[in-house]
Structures are given as structure tokens and as C-alpha cells.
Amino acid sequence: MPAYLGEEGWCLTTELKPGSENSQNGFGFVLNRVLPAARGLTALPILMRLDSAHDALENRPDRGRAQDEGIDFIIKWNPRQKTSPDWVTLAQGLDSVHWETPREGKRVATFSMAVSRRWRGRTYTHRRVMRVVERTIDHKGQILVLPDIEVEGWWTSLAFPDEQIIALYRGHATCEQFHSEFKTDMDLERLPSGKFDTNTLVMAAGTFV
Questions:
Q1: What is the reported pTM?
Q2: Are 5 and 38 in contact (CB under 8 A)?
Q3: CA geometry: angle 163, 165, 167, nearest 5 deg
Q4: For residue 12, which of 144, 21, 32 has the smallest C-alpha distance?
Q5: C-beta separation of 38 from 6 below 8 A
Q6: Per-run averaged pLDDT (10 residues), the chain, 209 residues
């Protein structure tokens, strides 16, 4: 579980976890170490980007804390309940949603919604940017018997336009290039030992490299 700072991919940590353990288990402790380390290296605003494995309320600080600490977030939404047709119905029922048609048989709706949840005795409200794509004809011109529906979402503390939030999260894909430096350039895709502490030492050395 690596954490990188900046577009150059400076590695702050490489946390090792048992393969059977949920990614979110203990992740708060990782953030408690990583965020102060990042803040100690720069006074500039920090944008924390997390994938859907860490879509948990505890990872989304409220707006006041984000402003105080200068740390904002974009976290990929993990759809756990609503089905795709439900989201199409929802988007069609919102007056503020503008559907775009980039080609015949494909239409796209992008919109924001405020979602409130209670956690540890407090109510938190966060913005979620949603994108719903409905395809009735595929890119080869084949008419589909049933619509192909794609739904994505991003939690954020930023007040930027929807499209800009999505574009900022796309930069998260750059991390895959940083991962490849460990896996390929340093040949650490398979760790050398059956002992956790030994592999932790190896990954610490890789982090410095």
C-alpha cells in the first residue's frame, strides 16, 4: 500500500498488509502517518486521492478540517447498493442534469449530489460527483438488446466543476507508473521472503531507491 507525493511520485511509505486483510482495515493509521509527513515536506495545498477500496466515511474529513489543514480529497466512490438502472432513473428525474450525446446511441449525464450520513454521533455531508453513461448502440454500430449502463462517482471536498473533479482524479492512474518502478525496475513484484519483517525491510529499501 504505497503513498506518493507530487506528480514526480516521491514515495512516502510502502505499507505491507496480509493478503487476506481488508484494505481499509487499519488504513486510518496509515493516513495519520502519511498526511503529517506530506505536510512536513510542503506548505502547498495537498490533494489526497484514494481509490474505491478506501471509500469509507472515516477517510473523508469535513470541509472545516480540510480548510484548516489545507488537505482536500477525491475518493473514488464504491457503489454498494443502487443498481445502474436506478441511477439512470435518478438522473432523468433531476432538472439540473444536462445529458450530452457524444455520438448516436450514447448519452452521458454528469452531476453533483450532497449525501449525508451519521457516524460516531455526528452527521457528515459530502459532495459526490456522478457520471452516468447509457449506451444503446456500441462503438461499432451494433444496436444493443438492453442498454449498457456505466456509473461512476467521486467523493470530494473541492468546489471545482464536476468535469474538473473527474479530470483531477484521472491523474491517479499515473500512480500505476510509480508502482511499475517497484514491480519491474526493482523486481519487487514478488517479495523474497516468507517472513513479514524481512519483506518490510526490503520494501523500505525500495522506498529509498
A1: 0.84
A2: yes
A3: 70
A4: 32
A5: no
A6: 87 83 78 87 90 84 62 89 78 83 93 86 88 93 93 93 93 83 88 91 89
Phi, psi of 165, rounded to the nearest 5 degrees: -60, -45
CA 200 from centre of chain: 25
pLDDT, position 63: 56
- pLDDT, position 65: 55
pLDDT of residue 90: 84
Using DSSP, state whether 83 is helix, strand or coil.
coil
CA–CA separation, 16 and 24 (whole Å): 13
Phi-psi region of 121 (alpha: psi -120 to 50; beta: other; left: phi over 0): left
Give the span between the Cα atoms of 117 and 41, in whole angstroms: 33
Distance (Å, whole) CA 21 – CA 85:
32
C-alpha dist (Å) from residue 85 to 88, 152, 179: 5, 13, 35
pLDDT at 18: 79
Alpha-carbon Rg for the chain, nearest whole angstrom, is 20
Closest by CA to 68, choosing from 41, 37, 39, is 39
